[in-house]
Design brief:
The structure is a single chain. By secondary structure, the chain is α/β, with parallel strands linked by helices. The strands form two sheets. Strands 4-3-2-5-6-10-9 form a seven-stranded mixed beta sheet, with helices on both faces. α5 links the parallel β5 and β6. α1 runs parallel beside α4. The longest helix has 27 residues. The radius of gyration is 17 Å and the shape is globular. The protein starts with 10 loop residues before the first strand and ends with a strand. The N terminus is likely disordered.
Length: about 270
């Protein structure tokens, strides 16, 4: 689970959080923490790389969206774009991306770095685009880990995709929810039920959620994809590469060499 510390430490708990509460909490969290996030992780992410997760799997080698030469002229929506590093890479391949994020402050970092593509501040559950607007939709740890109703987002994505279009998204590997979110040895022992779908919530002194992350099992994710009108054509679990000595929250070489940390779903719309 990806989260950064705040000045006033919130209470961490497991409790229900609906669509509205989750959206409001996470919009505020990313607006408050965008600066720190970009300082801490900006070097790893680069300004114009397409990295699928903390393992460092790069779209240059993965080609999950298709061969780079076939991206030219494609209309692409990046959901949960942050500072739009992936959209910048897509532009360099000749694609026509739009970078969308719920956080206005994250998109200000996208403006700071620069780029010729549109930036859109919106909730992934209500995409402000016409039906059949895109050839591809991608999301690297964007939106899906944080929404209470992933099928709402997936159905919106299907709506804006053209027939035959592809969706590729990455999330925390569901097995990680059974382990403590720690990079060291303490993060290697099961501490909870993998089947407990109760959301992880950080809340303030008045009980208001300030950060929410939702757990879906691997089977849940597959069922969400299929129920939303997609075919699952690949499920990628990146191995930890020898070159990556970085820690990112609970992701680390120690854990990455033993258990998966990221799941990438490659889906197609009929």
């Amino acid at each position: 689970m990806i989260q950064e510390s705040e000045a006033s430490e919130p209470e961490a708990t497991r409790r229900d959080a609906d669509v509205t509460e989750s959206s409001r909490a996470n919009r505020g969290w990313w607006d408050r923490n965008a600066d720190e996030y970009q300082v801490e992780h900006g070097t790893f992410l680069g300004d114009d790389r397409f990295v699928w997760g903390p393992e460092g799997l790069d779209e240059v080698e993965a080609e999950l969206l298709g061969p780079p030469e076939e991206l030219k002229g494609r209309d692409v929506l990046e959901i949960g774009a942050g500072a739009a590093q992936c959209s910048r890479w897509l532009t360099a391949q000749g694609a026509r991306p739009i970078a969308l994020d719920i956080s206005h402050r994250q998109l200000q970092h996208a403006l700071r770095i620069g780029g010729s593509f549109p930036l859109v501040c919106a909730d992934a559950g209500a995409l402000p685009f016409a039906d059949g607007s895109f050839d591809l939709v991608c999301s690297a740890y964007g939106a899906l880990p944080f929404v209470a109703d992933p099928r709402l987002v997936l159905r919106e994505v299907r709506r804006v995709l053209r027939p035959g279009g592809r969706l590729v998204f990455s999330v925390t590997h569901p097995i990680r929810w059974a382990f403590p979110d720690e990079p060291g040895p303490e993060g290697l022992s099961v501490s909870g039920s993998y089947f407990d779908r109760t959301p992880y919530v950080e809340q303030d002194d008045e009980g208001r959620a300030v950060y929410v992350e939702h757990h879906r099992t691997l089977g849940d994710r597959v069922r969400d994809v299929v129920a939303s009108g997609f075919r699952l054509v690949d499920l990628v679990e990146p191995e930890w590469p020898a070159w990556n000595t970085s820690e990112w929250g609970g992701w680390s070489p120690l854990r990455g060499n033993l258990i998966p940390g990221t799941a990438i779903f490659v889906c197609e719309r009929d």
